[in-house]
Specification:
134 residues; alpha+beta; 4 helices
């Protein structure tokens, strides 16, 4: 894990799920995955969208042309755990089909226009993943 992520994770846990810096005021969760190759536990902070009782994350990687490592990990091992505020729950990661993905991604762009910039920077379709609680 890089130092920046480690600092965000520490801040998240010390402040009941709130962080500052570039994430200040944004909804952030910690996604726990299992390494696709290593089998080692991984933790990644990321923005999310909550829609009613559903939670979505976005494999944007800031508009890079490749998917983030955490996305490859959950594709190989879809059973994940999530820290959201003070709550910790187990979930199954489900990649949305294109139609629902487009609807959910548009809702995220409406709230955080930077996600539109991310999609415009890359030829790949940025996946949207629902974290289905157990």
């Amino acid at each position: 894990m890089n130092d920046r992520n480690a600092a965000i994770i520490d801040e998240f846990r010390a402040n009941g799920g709130k962080v500052g810096g570039s994430f200040e005021g944004a909804p952030v969760l910690l996604l726990h995955t299992t390494g696709a190759k290593s089998g080692a536990p991984r933790v990644n902070p990321m923005m999310y969208l909550e829609d009613a009782d559903r939670v979505f994350v976005f494999a944007s990687k800031a508009g890079a042309d490749t998917h983030p490592d955490w996305y490859h990990n959950l594709r190989a091992n879809p059973e994940v755990s999530v820290e959201l505020g003070l709550e910790h729950f187990e979930a199954t990661a489900v990649v949305l089909d294109r139609e629902e993905r487009d609807r959910v991604y548009a809702a995220q762009v409406a709230r955080y226009p930077g996600f539109g910039d991310y999609q415009n920077k890359t030829a790949r379709v940025i996946p949207v993943v629902e974290l289905v609680r157990h």
